[in-house]
Amino acid sequence: MEPAQRPNRSTFWSRRRILGLICLVVAVYFLWYPSSDTKWVIVTLPDAGIYQCDPNETAKNVAIIGAGSGGASAAYYIDRFKHPCNSVNITVYERSSYVGGRSTTVDVYGDPAEPVELGASIFVEVNRNLVSAAREFNLATQGFKPKIKDLPNTLGVYDGKDWVFMGSESGWWTAAKILWKYGLAPIRTQQLMKKTVGAFLQMYEEPHFPFQDLSQTAYDLGLTEATAATGEEFLQANGIQGLFGTDIIQASTRVNYAQNIDKIHGLESMVCMATDGAMSIQGGNWQIFDGMLKASRANVLLNTSVSNVYRRSDGSYAVNALSSSYPTGIDLAIYDTVVLAAPLQFAKLNFTPAPVNPPPEIPYVNLHVTLFTSPRKLNPQAFNLEGAVPTTILTTTPKTNANPPPFYSISTLRTLTNPTTYQREYLYKIFSPAPVSPSWLHSILTPLHASTHPLATQDRQDISWIYEKVWQSYPYLSPRITFEDVQLDEEGKVWYTSGIESFISTMETSSLMGMNVARLITDGWKREGKESEKQKLQKAEGGIEAATGQVPMTGKAPGEEL
Ligand SMILES: Cc1cc2nc3c(=O)[nH]c(=O)nc-3n(C[C@H](O)[C@H](O)[C@H](O)COP(=O)(O)OP(=O)(O)OC[C@H]3O[C@@H](n4cnc5c(N)ncnc54)[C@H](O)[C@@H]3O)c2cc1C
Ligand SMILES: *[C@@H]1O[C@H](CO)[C@@H](O)[C@H](O)[C@H]1NC(C)=O
Ligand SMILES: *[C@@H]1O[C@H](CO)[C@@H](O)[C@H](O)[C@H]1NC(C)=O
Ligand SMILES: *[C@@H]1O[C@H](CO)[C@@H](O)[C@H](O)[C@H]1NC(C)=O
């Protein structure tokens, strides 16, 4: 061997080693070690403007339909953004018996001390509305990494036959070996994700906030490039090649959105990789939305389903609801402004007149969530493994044309004590495209010794508690460049938050849209206020007739005054 080659060879190896370590650190970091130290973000209140209050000013009556993230945020931010002169009376209608919508918990074993998320479970540190609300309401957050005494924390990606990724706290070298094959892709993905998230965060700031037209704002921020392409195309367009997309990013699009990377759009694929500082609220994320509703002093009507919203001749809106809480079962009230904070296609309500551009029906994923407890661990044989099964199983599509696994994810969440048997049990959560059969559930759990336990007993003891729910969880996020209207009528009195879901479907984005609508509504009131102020000044300065077309602050429609 010639001496001259030696330095070359050694730099080659050390560079590769450094590169490998960087890949490892980056990939393991954002897949598995989201930082728990949260950077708090303060939302600054917009300038309130200066004008004298009219003591005879009547309260604004606002109806919000839906007490999920979108509706609760609309209420909260209307109260924060409104001019101090405006007194606002907010009524929130909620069809179900609880606050939170798709963010809700159920009680394991029916025990209120053991809640577990049934819907949205995770938000991240760049989710500034949720993070600042959690702080304001003193809600404790927790990381999303399971902590189970007798099981090491591991995350694996399974394709139904092979494990394409296996990461564990101790087995970092395994991760390094597997990540070796992805080269620069993890770093490039991280950079692309940061850039995309950076553009998205401008939606919270002037001049983009508030936005009347989501399609235009997405375009202005360069985000249409990401929504117009599939995840796969978007990665390719940004120089990210190889198996990282299907092995790792797709594992994330499947667990988060039940969609593959060749179908889901590029923006939502990037959202799936933005996992820094992943957290949830201890006891349930719904408490954020409950806190927002309480802070807004809104009147929340549970078990109350809005069936009709119609415009009256004076420009106000009548809201008709069915409720088990009313003696007559029917509630009718009049509002200045109405916010629909639920997907129109599931709200089952009529608008008269119909919206200017009615949001079209879009396909939603039917996601099956199965929560259950068992004293058994997962059976390695059921997953082609010899050692322990990872506590978080994600999935991807197989490289051959075999079938992918019949589930998107299986998570071992925590251990608890069964209140009847006092046995220690595991709490599992499965996301799947179809219901899971009892026999399949038994097949993934380690069997008891047949000699000591007859089959019948075994079946009964396998699963001690089970809860199944089918959600219309999120839209199929196919590539698109236009998004539904924020304002549904011509006068700016009927608003819609759920159009943002085909852009990004998360608790935070629903909150962002609730905040956006709140700002558009309160800005409208401020304009009305300034107009009526001007009218009064003109009158005072020599009885000049109020110019036509100006809307007084008491909120009558212009046509009505004649
Ligand atoms: C299983 C699952 C996992 C998820 N995981 C995450 C996650 O980890 N992180 C994340 O950020 N997001 C996640 N999501 C998505 C997230 O839950 C939603 O994007 C978000 O909660 C939507 O909030 P929203 O207020 O817009 O709608 P919703 O939460 O659906 O609220 C709408 C409310 O309106 C009510 N309503 C509808 N029609 C009427 C009517 N006519 N009258 C009165 N009330 C009505 C409904 O009952 C509902 O409570 C997940 C969703 C599911 C289902
Ligand atoms: C408020 O209403 C009262 C009674 O109608 C009236 O006397 C008063 O001038 C009004 N105040 C203002 C600021 O318009
Ligand atoms: C607030 O709204 C509720 C429900 O519509 C109504 O009963 C109440 O009278 C309103 N209060 C005010 C001060 O307008
Ligand atoms: C709503 O309905 C549920 C089930 O019918 C009931 O248990 C609950 O008490 C009701 N809540 C309210 C506020 O009326």
Automatic annotation (TrEMBL):
Domain called Prenylcysteine lyase: residue spans: 166-532
Keyword line: FAD, Flavoprotein, Glycoprotein, Membrane, Oxidoreductase, Signal, Transmembrane, Transmembrane helix
Names of required cofactors: FAD
Claim: ATP-binding is one of the keywords in the record: no
Region (Disordered): 529-562
Biological process annotations from GO: prenylated protein catabolic process; prenylcysteine catabolic process
Family membership: Belongs to the prenylcysteine oxidase family.
Protein name: Prenylcysteine lyase domain-containing protein
Source organism (scientific name): Imshaugia aleurites
Lineage, opening ranks: Eukaryota, Fungi, Dikarya, Ascomycota, Pezizomycotina
